[in-house]
Specification:
Elements: H1 14-30, H2 35-63
Helix pairs in contact: 1-2
Biased composition (Low complexity): 65-75
Region (Disordered): 64-87
GO cellular component, one term: exodeoxyribonuclease VII complex
Amino acid sequence: MTEPQPTPTGPVPYREAYARLSRIAAELESGEADLDRVLPLLEEAREAYAQCRARIEAVRGVLTGDWAGDGASDGADTDPEDDSGAE
């Protein structure tokens, strides 16, 4: 059996986080994980899942046009039909 991996301190590539989830799932499904090891494995899986989900949400945001931090806050994204300040 392998020991839980240390928690990375920075962004983890999606592929690496997904691989961690796959490894943990395989170990838990095999039934060979010692009971004392289950809680650390679940915590590691929770962290890897959160990293995967954050990456997926970031991509989803880009695909739907939500470009956080791209400088769009300079007024370029205002409604052209909004003439509230035109009077």
